Amino acid sequence: MTTLTIHTIESAPADSKPLLENSVKGFGMLPNLHGVLASSPQTLEAYQRLHQLFMDTSFNADELTVVWQAINVEHGCGYCVPAHTFIANSMGVAAELTEALRNQEAMPNAKLQTLFDTTITIVRNRGIVSQADLDKFYAAGYGEQQVLEIILALSQKVISNYTNHIASTPVDQPFEKFAWSKKA
């Protein structure tokens, strides 16, 4: 097990301090992930910016959750799955959807299943997707914009998921009730 420093606002590099202050404003606390990312102000800024950009995409709350959690579960991130369960709850996403994602079960409708399947295909195949897969995605009501928005989310999640693996980031207290580990 490896660990990285979890900074506070006081211990963080100067360029990270205002970014961490924004984290506290947004979450009401300083998430441990943000404290870890603070060692590199550029990485923390990129993560925060990518998060906001993805939040501003064409996806609704259920779709945002499907994409985030499909990636988090596929990557086996024991920090991000609980954190995004908390976020999904705060966005009003139904518990049935978040539990299906956490437990690697079928999505509640065909459109979300197609979004999930496309996201997993992009992750597992490192962006190599067949025309048949894209055609199925488009037939479900999505378009080229949404393909690129999945890639945007993947960019954000690679930063957090990989950082959490390397840092062994402890789950924050507000997320603990949503603790999760990947099925064997």
What features would you describe in this structure?
The chain is mainly α. The protein has a domain at 55-178: AhpD-like, CATH 1.20.1290.10. The chain contains nine helices and no strands. It has helices spanning 17-27, 32-37, 41-55, 61-75, 80-90, 95-102, 110-124, 131-139, 144-167. The longest helix has 24 residues, at 144-167. The relative contact order is 0.17.
Q: Secondary-structure blueprint of this entry?
A:
Layout: H1 17-27, H2 32-37, H3 41-55, H4 61-75, H5 80-90, H6 95-102, H7 110-124, H8 131-139, H9 144-167
Helix pairs in contact: 3-9, 4-5, 4-6, 4-7, 4-9, 7-8, 7-9
What keywords describe this structure?
184 residues; 9 helices; mainly alpha; AhpD-like; 62% helix; 0% strand
Order of helices and strands: HHHHHHHHH
CATH topology of the domain at 55-178: AhpD-like
List the uncertain runs: none
In which range does the helix fraction lie?
A: 55-70%
| The top level CATH class name of the domain at 55-178 | Mainly Alpha
Gross geometry: globular
Relative strand content? under 5%
Secondary structure tally, helices: 9
What is the annotated CATH architecture of the domain at 55-178?
Up-down Bundle
- pLDDT average, as an integer? 96
Task: Give me the Rg, rounded.
Answer: 16 Å
How is the main sheet built? none
Output the CATH homologous superfamily of the domain at 55-178.
Answer: AhpD-like
Number of strands: 0
Structural class per helix/strand content? mainly alpha
- In terms of quaternary structure, what is this? single chain
